[in-house]
């Protein structure tokens, strides 16, 4: 069943575009983006493998159950709230920036707030389904969308418009010292493993996740594509001008055959699907964390429709997301994303290290 | 006994009650003549009784055709199923003399295959079991009988392969049949709606088929088959979405052509669901989606149309749905007239009058034709509906609305379970020893 683990890795890795990761990295292109990416491959893979080995010791249990096993509730409750907030912010940034993106590229006449309400309503519906539904949804979403995304990426790499000199020029800055924000952004590619925190509940016992060596490879490939392809298209300097740099890159390509000429429409529709799936999955985890606060909570992964509490929590998340877009613009979203990515890395290193020590000591409370 | 039957049953012309007497004893018999084969009544009861070759009570006790019935409450029930009640020496016996009107071996009509089995299930339960058993000669074949419906008392057979069946599915099926509280069950489709758990589901979670080869195939795959008296269709459960897209021919026609046809079917359902809403989205919101020449020719063909695209789509969809409905309801002899009038004359005239664009005519016919590609009828009907909800987001949000609508369908499909089994899962569990996802119940 290793594929259900890799779905999360691939989904999150592809979603980096929605969280402005390419734009952040490109800002540091002369100031250590290359080294940061190299470090993030090591850090990301290490965290991933450690977390996997910890979670595989507790099949059928999520992070809340494991923490409750070792620590008193007074400690776990605030921690779980904190984790839930971390899990809400990322997907919410993605869906907010997508609503703005739709306003920019597909429906210039529709207000982004209205679009965001539609997207959020749909994600609320999806996020309040049982855990197994989300797992199947991720699987089907990737099976349907991945071929086209690979096609677009392949088209991009093989495109005549790519200026390889620009890529060489940027690659020459590999001696610069790494920067924390760039490491944070680049290591986001690997953060899909963190979804095991809830989805581990569905993992069977004695599962050995095979082909672990592909994790750094997937990460490096995605990082290289996400960073270098826009540079190749737009040149070393002007690539910095675009916030939605990958949408502009997709718009630089045409398909000479068939009904649809501009690649950007295919790209946008595919990424709309991926963003919705990612948001649904992220919010679902946040809701599961918050539901775990109740004393008599019993996790269910299938068949049982989500209780009222889940809907209320989900509605609160949606309201917060919509209010956020009402008050802030995408410049602030970009800054928020940058800080969130950096902070997320700290939290992840802390959490995984803490869990590692906890499990090593193996002192079960009770 | 006869007096009591007179009080239980309403006054009916076809309720026959006789009191017979020979030298030794008197017997009473009661049956409903319209349900019974009267020659059987006379062969088994009246003639031996009058001939008096041996004592009739011994015949009743020893002949396996007669069974003793002790429960008075079951009298009406047995009579109504075509049994004869015989009362001799204060003991009650029954004889099965049911006569069922049936046509000759029925041909497949709903789900046809060129080279597959040409015989369909029969409306009579025993004949259907006969057809299945001859095609599935395995000692493991289990057949359970129950009755469903408080008034209709429809006889229902639960058929499965004892060794291959998934016990949790079987328990699930039995449980949902037990919980069923309804007066009348008449058709397999009705039962499907009653036991599927979702009263207003968008998709069927059980296959309805009349083909014995599909049934035996499913039995072999460990599925449970439900047969209903009086309905020539069987329910197969659990089912996945992808099984509805497979015709039985796919197993025995040329390999590559059938693979190609499967892909074609998926392409067709995507077209039939998406085209109307895409038309609205492209014409009203995002004409820049298509290459310039195509966008111009669409806009040009719409130049005479005086109202927005969604009105146009609604007019044409109304027309095509009426046409399909009419050709189902009409007698076979007039059916072809309706399609000719509707399809050829009306479509052409509507376009020339400038009521709809010619591209819209193409869209409508593609929608209708692609819909008929789905091999299983109940899925075909379900898919026919899916294009309408998609029109709403297309009208208000354009292209992104359509994509969001498709996402909702995906979530809905992923959320469906067929008797506890996932409905929309393209790849099954990979290898048995690795275990499946969601196997352990979280503690």
UniProtKB/TrEMBL annotation, chain A:
Keywords: Membrane, Transmembrane, Transmembrane helix
TM helices/strands, residue ranges: 6-25, 37-55, 75-101, 113-128, 134-154, 213-233, 309-327, 339-359
Keyword Transport in record: no
Superkingdom, natural source: Bacteria
Protein's UniProt name: Spore germination protein
Species name: Paenibacillus methanolicus
Lineage: Bacteria, Bacillati, Bacillota, Bacilli, Bacillales
UniProtKB/TrEMBL annotation, chain B:
GO cellular component: membrane
Organism: Paenibacillus methanolicus
Alphabetized UniProt keyword annotations: Membrane, Transmembrane, Transmembrane helix
Residues that span the membrane, as ranges: 224-242, 262-283, 354-374, 394-414
UniProt protein name: Spore germination protein
Any Gene Ontology biological process: spore germination
Homology family: Belongs to the GerABKA family.
Source lineage: Bacteria, Bacillati, Bacillota, Bacilli, Bacillales
InterPro entries linked to this entry: Spore_Ger, UPF0353/GerABKA_families
